[in-house]
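1st attempt posting a full record on here, be nice pls
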Amino acid sequence: MLTVHHLNKSRSQRILWALEELGVPYNIVRYERQKNMLAPDALKKIHPLGKSPVVEDNGFILAESGAILEYLQETYDTEQRFKPHDAQQKIDYRFWLHYAEGSLMPLLLMKLVVGQLGKPPVPFGVRSVGKLIGKGIENAFLNKQLETHARFIEGELAHRPWFAGDELSMADVQMSFPVFALLSRGGIENLPNLQAWKKRVEMRPTWKRAIEQGGPFSLPGE
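the predicted structure (as tokens):
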């Protein structure tokens, strides 16, 4: 049976969602983040990078969310429900699969990191300086970039309910983690299409089952 190495507050939540959508049975091996929010060393016994998600299936060990989702779709989506057939929608599908981690998540991770510069474990004596540096980076660069990306995604979802068309696809599964993070910590208002997409996701029984299996869903730093 397929095994998911699941870290709390991590991208592996979307792998559980994908498996619930596909109806694929799976086992979960659970890991808890350390106080520094990093994954425990035990994950390095499964994959050298020591990060989650990692999936074991059919003798393969797979890492990286996009690669895992593509594997799951190609292997288990026998009815081709989670990859569009229309030429333009296939282009959109491929774009969002790569955009999630290639463009959006690095900015969100940077915002998380600079937001911690005024907090432990930063030494007490330099926290005030760290906080000022973090705010400076946010105001000079990060907030503008995140605003641009948020408005771009908002505009794309004005034309369709899901990222690659009229039906949910693995592109939506891949985008779930960065979109939830963007809405949680982006500080950007007036995103009705993104909020409506998030509500559609949260209403799906498969999403709810994935939460039940993986535990309460929250993002690092919340």
